[in-house]
Design brief:
371 residues; elongated; single chain; mainly alpha
């Protein structure tokens, strides 16, 4: 029973990926059945296209379908035009046409990667007729028909079979980022008094960078869904910008904590820094949990109190002249840390507001569903 529960929990934690696998399977088999029923020349292209356009979210499927169809139609028209307007005979003639087709389309695809299908389509339109003694225009029509069947099938499956909205995915991705930022922040402040594990910190920072790229991509997909009126929810911009600013705060704090503080300063600031680290890391992790669950924002008051205690301790350190006599770069890092924490405080207040907006959106959605 325990093993079965562990397997079930692991599968459940991957339900988004499992849903994608189901959609791709349904799209591929449906595209093949439809292409066969329509007696298309090469059902394979319909199947491959359906797999390509069936993506993790509806927003990503929309973009993949648009890009692949534009590339296919453009490549088919260009390849057919060259074959019709420039008569050729023999393998050398076909080789020359391939150069005329591939070179400009490959150049366009290098500038606009979303049109990369155009080059492949043009080559198929040119080469396939020579293999089957068919008409180039008919080959272009067949190719567009096959791709259209696959694209439409994949897009419909994305909408109808276990649909996954990017707006839902952005909650999980944002939560992961906030937890990584919390880990990095705690490690950085700990380094002011005990030194820090740079290898561990680098792993965390690399993870933040990778997760930030993924979050921005999902945000673009979510906005594409919103603009097409396929999903609701709040604007993703404020959430993404707030998390990006928090990421920058961590970078600034990292620069200010390259080396530990002087011993006498450490002694005075150890307790308030521990309080700040605990309060902010807890708030970030609680905000991550709230985003995942669509719950209300966690209380931010402990963060206000902790930073106020730290400000008072800093004022006492300055009043007692504990920074005097130390190198200029030590004083610079000391004041830079205070400035960075003030900036982070403002961004945490923004995060508190944004998480509240996302929880209100979840509550409104629940009310609408209940009605």
């Amino acid at each position: 029973m325990t093993l079965a529960k562990q397997v079930f929990d692991r599968i459940r934690s991957r339900r988004t990926q499992l849903g994608l696998a189901v959609r791709v399977t349904v799209a591929a088999t449906s595209a093949y059945a439809i292409a066969t029923a329509l007696h298309l020349l090469l059902p394979l292209w319909a199947v491959l296209t359906s797999i390509i356009v069936t993506q993790m979210s509806v927003g990503r499927s929309l973009k993949a379908t648009r890009d692949y169809m534009l590339g296919t139609v453009g490549g088919a028209l260009y390849g057919a035009a060259i074959a019709v307007l420039i008569p050729y005979s023999g393998e050398l003639g076909l080789l020359g046409l391939l150069v005329l087709a591939v070179a400009p389309l490959a150049f366009v695809a290098s500038i606009y990667p979303s049109l990369s299908a155009a080059t492949v389509t043009a080559v198929i339109v040119l080469v396939l007729p020579s293999m089957h003694h068919a008409d180039p225009m008919a080959s272009a029509i067949d190719r567009v028909s096959e791709v259209a069947v696959g694209a439409i099938t994949g897009l419909l499956v994305s909408f109808l079979v276990l649909p996954s909205r990017a707006v839902r995915q952005i909650r999980a991705s944002a939560a992961i980022l906030l937890e990584l930022i919390a880990d990095a922040f705690a490690e950085l402040l700990a380094g002011l008094t005990r030194g820090r594990d740079n290898d561990a910190l680098h792993r965390i920072q690399d993870g933040i960078g990778t997760a930030m790229v993924g979050l921005n991509a999902i945000g673009a997909e979510a906005e594409r869904e919103r603009s097409a009126r396929l999903s609701g929810g709040p604007d993703t911009g404020p959430l993404l910008r707030t998390i990006l600013r928090l990421r920058h705060d961590v970078v600034m704090i990292g620069r200010a904590t390259v080396v530990p503080l002087p011993i006498e300063v450490q002694t005075r600031l150890a307790a308030p820094l521990t309080e700040v680290s605990t309060a902010i890391a807890y708030f970030l992790r609680a905000a991550a949990a709230a985003l995942r669950e669509g719950a209300g924002a966690p209380p931010i008051h402990p963060v206000h109190v902790a930073l106020q205690h730290y400000a008072e301790a800093v004022a006492a350190v300055r009043h007692d002249g504990l920074i005097r006599g130390h190198p200029g770069d030590t004083a610079e890092r000391f004041f830079a840390l205070g400035f960075s924490l003030e900036q982070m405080h403002q961004n945490l207040c923004d995060l508190d507001r944004v998480v509240g907006e996302w929880s209100e959106a979840a509550a409104d959605k629940s009310v609408r569903v209940a009605e």
